Amino acid sequence: MASREDCVARSSKRFEQRGFRLVAAKFMQASEEHMKNHYLDLKDKPFYEGLCKYMSSGPVLAMVWEGQNIVKLGRMMLGETNPAESRPGSIRGDLCIDIGRNIVHGSDTLENAKAEINLWFKPEELVSYTSCAQAWLYE
């Protein structure tokens, strides 16, 4: 997940409350080239250049969250890409207004999550641990 800097706490809190584990985080100013690599699957879309320019215009917090069904549940928590179609209670439904200024990105498949993690993080930057709450969350 990547989040705009002024929404980091509000976005992260929801993942923590759900019981997911934060295993990596990096606050950074991503270059436009880095964002073009991240959004490579959208390169033929008319909004691609503007999206990459916008996402590289300020700092982002790139994060890796772990947990059971993290991709599916994370996408539900984020809401629809278009904030106007997102339900109240979702991150985009509560914190976004415009589809072109989406505050948060989340991987849509496990395969894409793995590729995006490799784009943003080195293997040694991922922390492996067992949460003290794990026994309360999972059978």
From TrEMBL:
<keyword id="KW-0547">Nucleotide-binding</keyword>
<keyword id="KW-0479">Metal-binding</keyword>
<dbReference type="GO" id="GO:0006228">
    <property type="term" value="P:UTP biosynthetic process"/>
</dbReference>
<dbReference type="GO" id="GO:0005524">
    <property type="term" value="F:ATP binding"/>
</dbReference>
<dbReference type="InterPro" id="IPR036850">
    <property type="entry name" value="NDK-like_dom_sf"/>
</dbReference>
<dbReference type="GO" id="GO:0005634">
    <property type="term" value="C:nucleus"/>
</dbReference>
<protein>
    <recommendedName>
        <fullName>Nucleoside diphosphate kinase B</fullName>
        <ecNumber>2.7.4.6</ecNumber>
    </recommendedName>
</protein>
<dbReference type="GO" id="GO:0001726">
    <property type="term" value="C:ruffle"/>
</dbReference>
<keyword id="KW-0963">Cytoplasm</keyword>
<keyword id="KW-0539">Nucleus</keyword>
<dbReference type="InterPro" id="IPR034907">
    <property type="entry name" value="NDK-like_dom"/>
</dbReference>
<keyword id="KW-0966">Cell projection</keyword>
<keyword id="KW-0067">ATP-binding</keyword>
<dbReference type="Pfam" id="PF00334">
    <property type="entry name" value="NDK"/>
</dbReference>
<dbReference type="GO" id="GO:0006241">
    <property type="term" value="P:CTP biosynthetic process"/>
</dbReference>
<keyword id="KW-0418">Kinase</keyword>
<dbReference type="GO" id="GO:0030027">
    <property type="term" value="C:lamellipodium"/>
</dbReference>
<dbReference type="GO" id="GO:0006183">
    <property type="term" value="P:GTP biosynthetic process"/>
</dbReference>
<keyword id="KW-0808">Transferase</keyword>
<comment type="function">
    <text>Major role in the synthesis of nucleoside triphosphates other than ATP.</text>
</comment>
<dbReference type="InterPro" id="IPR001564">
    <property type="entry name" value="Nucleoside_diP_kinase"/>
</dbReference>
<keyword id="KW-0597">Phosphoprotein</keyword>
<dbReference type="GO" id="GO:0046872">
    <property type="term" value="F:metal ion binding"/>
</dbReference>
<comment type="similarity">
    <text>Belongs to the NDK family.</text>
</comment>
<keyword id="KW-0131">Cell cycle</keyword>
<feature type="domain" description="Nucleoside diphosphate kinase-like">
    <location>
        <begin position="6"/>
        <end position="128"/>
    </location>
</feature>
<dbReference type="GO" id="GO:0004550">
    <property type="term" value="F:nucleoside diphosphate kinase activity"/>
</dbReference>
<dbReference type="GO" id="GO:0005737">
    <property type="term" value="C:cytoplasm"/>
</dbReference>
<keyword id="KW-0460">Magnesium</keyword>
